[in-house]
């Protein structure tokens, strides 16, 4: 497979590329992006190298990339730089900032959402999460407030200034969700719903889309799913790992931490980890979140509730405000060690709760004299922790 890139304005050059591909008997598809056209072509075997060299010589062609992966537009080689998805003024995902998105699993009421939004914003989260349309295993479980939930999100965004991420489950809701949110979430259950993926790719808003990995989906299938959105002209795709089927019964699903650097090798798209749906239990969330930062993720999607015992959805896995605050404090230190920035917490952390990392080896090192070679960042992190 070839990926040929040209600037948008070069119509005659694009014609020349098409004519050359037609002569070679290649099947191909052109994708119009905001600033360029990409042509995905399937040459018959045998003459790829010659054809690639010839296409590279066509005036206006910027790059010709030969790919052996089943996915193409999401492949690392498809762009020179990593993709940074702009969510709102001053907020990008995929840049140097480690971005935390947090909030309830489901929107339950205005008061609930407003209260949790205050908590997550106070702890340094940059985006408010919350499902208005909920995919539930049982049809008798709370299904979300639907359009009323979107109204709640709209109001809370206005009050707090936090951008919103919420799930789109069905094509018929695409316009309403697109209008209400800053990031459209495609959930695990729709991870391979190709008609829905094409639809979000076609939205004129080119709204950022956070695509979750399916519960039994390989990385190849995951990146092919991302291609379904990209090939419709929406470049703003964010990948989200939320665990897959595993053999352990300790957590709701299994996250292979190696998938994070493996994905970074394979794709230019930003990578988010959802530790809440990996864990299924609140006390496992901080350690999974910490491993995601260290393994090179670009951010987190975390469930938080001010009253977990009363939560209508995923009660067992949402963090109480104090634990979320404490987790964010440690995540910020780790992000710093990893050379990333992270928004500071406008609200001071409450000291009343047991620390979510207290059983893990992530406590600040004892205040012994620093050994030679101890990194400056590490020292700063330690000082900040004390
Ligand atoms: C969610 O984020 O609330 C959700 C339903 O997640 P997933 O699609 O990963 O199960
Ligand atoms: Mn949930």
SS elements, strand count: 14
What fraction of residues sit in β-strands? 15-25%
Strand arrangement in the largest pleated sheet:
7-8-9-10-11-12-13-14
**Would you identify the CATH H-level superfamily of the largest domain?**
Aldolase class I
Layout of helices and strands:
Layout: E1 2-7, H1 11-23, E2 27-32, E3 36-42, H2 48-57, E4 63-66, E5 85-88, E6 91-93, E7 99-103, H3 110-122, E8 127-129, H4 147-160, E9 164-167, H5 174-180, E10 183-186, H6 194-202, E11 209-212, H7 219-230, E12 237-241, H8 259-266, E13 271-273, H9 275-279, H10 285-295, E14 299-303, H11 321-337, H12 376-385
Parallel strand pairs: 7-8, 7-14, 8-9, 9-10, 10-11, 11-12, 12-13, 13-14
Antiparallel strand pairs: 1-3, 1-4, 2-3, 5-6
Helix pairs in contact: 3-4, 6-7, 10-11, 11-12
């Amino acid at each position: 497979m070839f990926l040929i890139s040209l600037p948008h304005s070069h119509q005659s050059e694009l014609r020349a590329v098409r004519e050359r591909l037609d002569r070679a008997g290649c099947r191909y598809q052109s994708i119009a992006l905001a600033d360029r056209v990409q042509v995905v072509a399937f040459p018959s075997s045998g003459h790829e190298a010659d054809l690639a060299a010839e296409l590279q010589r066509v005036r206006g062609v910027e790059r010709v990339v030969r790919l052996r992966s089943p996915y193409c537009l999401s492949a690392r080689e498809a762009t020179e730089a990593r993709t940074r998805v702009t969510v709102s003024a001053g907020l990008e995902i995929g840049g140097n900032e480690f971005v935390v998105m947090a909030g309830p699993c489901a929107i339950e009421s205005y008061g609930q959402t407003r209260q949790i939004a205050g908590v997550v914003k106070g702890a340094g989260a940059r985006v408010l999460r919350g499902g208005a349309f909920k995919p539930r295993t049982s049809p008798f479980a709370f299904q979300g407030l639907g359009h009323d939930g979107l109204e709640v999100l709209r109001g809370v965004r206005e009050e707090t200034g936090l951008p919103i991420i919420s799930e789109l489950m069905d094509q018929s809701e695409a316009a309403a969700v697109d209008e209400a949110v800053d990031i459209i979430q495609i959930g695990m259950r729709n991870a391979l719903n190709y008609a829905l993926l094409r639809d979000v790719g076609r939205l004129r808003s080119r709204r950022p889309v956070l695509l979750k990995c399916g519960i039994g989906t390989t990385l190849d299938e995951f990146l092919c799913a991302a291609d379904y959105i990209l090939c419709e002209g929406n470049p703003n795709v964010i990948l989200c790992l939320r665990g897959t089927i595993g053999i352990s019964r300790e957590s709701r699903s299994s996250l292979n931490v190696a998938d994070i650097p493996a994905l970074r090798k394979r794709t230019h798209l930003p990578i988010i980890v959802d530790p809440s749906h990996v864990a299924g239990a609140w006390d496992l969330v901080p350690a999974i979140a910490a491993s995601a930062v260290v393994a090179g993720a670009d951010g987190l999607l975390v469930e938080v509730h001010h009253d977990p015992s009363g939560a209508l959805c995923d009660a067992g896995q949402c963090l109480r405000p104090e634990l979320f605050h404490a987790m964010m404090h440690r995540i910020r230190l780790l992000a710093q060690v990893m050379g990333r920035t992270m928004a500071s917490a406008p609200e001071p952390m409450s000291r009343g709760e047991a620390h979510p990392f207290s059983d893990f080896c992530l406590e600040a090192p004892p205040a012994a004299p620093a050994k030679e070679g101890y990194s400056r960042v590490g020292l700063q992190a330690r000082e900040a922790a004390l």
